[in-house]
# Entry
Amino acid sequence: MILLVGGTGFLGSFVAARLAERHPSVLVRPTSDVSVLPAGLALRSGDLNTGLPLEGISTLIYCASMGFGHIPSLIEQLERGGVKRAVFVSTTAIFTSLPSRSRALRLEAEAAVESSQLEWTIVRPTMIYGTSRDRNISRLLRFLRRSPIFPLCGGGLWQPIYVEDLAGAVVAALDSNVTHRRMYNVAGAEPLRFSELLKTAARAMQREVKLIPVPLEVAVLAAKITRIVTAEQIRRLAEDKAFSYTDAARDFNFAPRSFAEGVQLEAATLEP
# Structure
């Protein structure tokens, strides 16, 4: 039986939908919004801090964050509980060159998985988007709806992944025999400069946008003053976030859609 951790999260709810016919169990807390899950799934109460309900579980799919320090103790629980197979969703953010406390925790988490006795697979997505529940592109689309002007700082490459494509990749990696004890980067079809991503998003909203160049350090200073976003988030705009998914395409037929297609689908879901 499969236990899905993070099933009520943005990605996890899409993974749950793809697994529904296999009748997985979903880890929930009292505060979890189970309305995002397909009807009829088994719910198991538990918490990463206090231990997982692993009775009868042979496979784990982990869609929660790996950046909070839970993974080393979780691996011990899984090995003691007799779980054999596990797929973990990490992030390509581990490759950032910027100072980041969560990066160290995520690298520690991946190392714990890699040294375990599990038949593990790690899937590392780029930024995930696709509905109003995402934390980035939905905010961008709403801003573009309101404003014809966007401050442009940083010219890094972006390669966001559509949530349905990522959910499909997680399940495909689970089902493939060749993915055991391997790590995979997964991303959108092709990288875009941030300026082109902005223009593509504006077209999806049927808007024209004028990009106003802003020096990166000025934007960083503004972030520190306003605290609307962090200085690290601003600096990330200038960092390339493009990744090859050749291994995923070879091993489990990963074939993501373009950002133009995905953002058009997301724009159609936003409320007026």
Remarks:
- The chain has a mean pLDDT of 93.
